[in-house]
Amino acid sequence: MTTSTNQQKHQSNNPFMRWAISRFHGQVRGLLPADADSLLEVGCGEGYSARAVLDGRSLRAYGGDLNAAAVSQARWRCPAVSYAVFDALRLPFPDRSVDVVLSLEVLEHLPDPAAALAEYRRVARRALLLSVPNEPIFRLQRLMTGKGVRLLGDHPEHIQHWSLAGFRRFVERQGITVIAAVSPPPFAWSVLLCAL
C-alpha cells in the first residue's frame, strides 16, 4: 500500500516535523469553539488531525474524504467519528447541520476553493476552522529538508498558494468573517477561525 504524503508527515521520525505537527494541531485545537456540539471534518485523510484536535472533546463528529482507503484508516484511527467518502463540493449534509466545519490542508488542492467555501458555509451553523500552507515559508521549509527541489519547494499536489494575509483576504472576499488568523511556529501553515 502506498503511503500518502499526509501519512508521511504525521508518521515522520524527524523531531522538527513532529514538533511542527504538534504545534499545528495544538493551535487548531485551541481555536475550536469550546461550546461546539458538532463538527464535520472535510478532507479527513487518514484521521490523524481528528485524533489530535478532538482529543478529549465530546461532540458529535463526522468526517470524510474522496479517498476511500484513507477513510477506512480514519475509521480505525478515530472510531468515535462517523466517516464517509464524499466530495468537498457536494457535502452529504443538510443546510446548517453542524456547528463547525473543519477543513485542514484541503483548499490548496482544489481548482475552485471558493465553491468549497460556499458548500462549507451551507452546512455550518456557527464557524469554519480552515488551514492551508503559509507561502512562501512552507516552500522554504520543504526546500531545507530536500523536498520539492525541482519545484522550488512547492508540493506537486498544490494548485492554490496563499500567505496568511492572502488567505485571509481570499476568505473575506467570499463574504466570510475571519475572527482569528494565526500561523503557529514554525509558520508553515495559516489557520483561520471564521464566524458565520
Short description:
By secondary structure, this protein is α/β, with parallel strands linked by helices. 35% of the residues lie in helices and 23% in strands.
Shape: globular
Strand content: 15-25%
Number of domains: 1
Strand order of the largest sheet: 3-2-1-4-5-7-6
Mean of pLDDT: 93
Distance between the termini: 40 Å
Put simply, the count of helices is: 7
Please give the number of β-strands. 7
The CATH first-level class comes to Alpha Beta
Return the CATH architecture: 3-Layer(aba) Sandwich
Radius of gyration: 16 Å
- Helical fraction equals 25-40%
CATH superfamily: Vaccinia Virus protein VP39
Given helix and strand content, the structural type is alpha/beta
Largest sheet: 7 strands, mixed
Question: Could you outline the blueprint of secondary structure elements for this entry?
Answer:
Elements (H helix, E strand, L loop, with lengths): L4 H6 L4 H17 L6 E5 L5 H6 L6 E6 L2 H10 L4 E4 L12 E7 L8 H11 E10 L3 H8 L19 H10 L3 E6 L6 E7 L1
Parallel strand pairs: 1-2, 1-4, 2-3, 4-5
Antiparallel strand pairs: 5-7, 6-7
Could you characterize the architecture of this molecule?
With 196 residues, this protein is of the alpha/beta class. The chain has a single domain (5-195), classed as Vaccinia Virus protein VP39 (Rossmann fold), CATH 3.40.50.150. It is built from seven helices and seven strands, in the order H-H-E-H-E-H-E-E-H-E-H-H-E-E. The chain has a seven-stranded mixed beta sheet with strand order 3-2-1-4-5-7-6, with helices on both faces. A hairpin with a 6-residue loop joins strand 6 (177-182) and strand 7 (189-195). The longest helix is centred in the N-terminal third of the chain and has 17 residues, at 15-31. The mean pLDDT is 93.
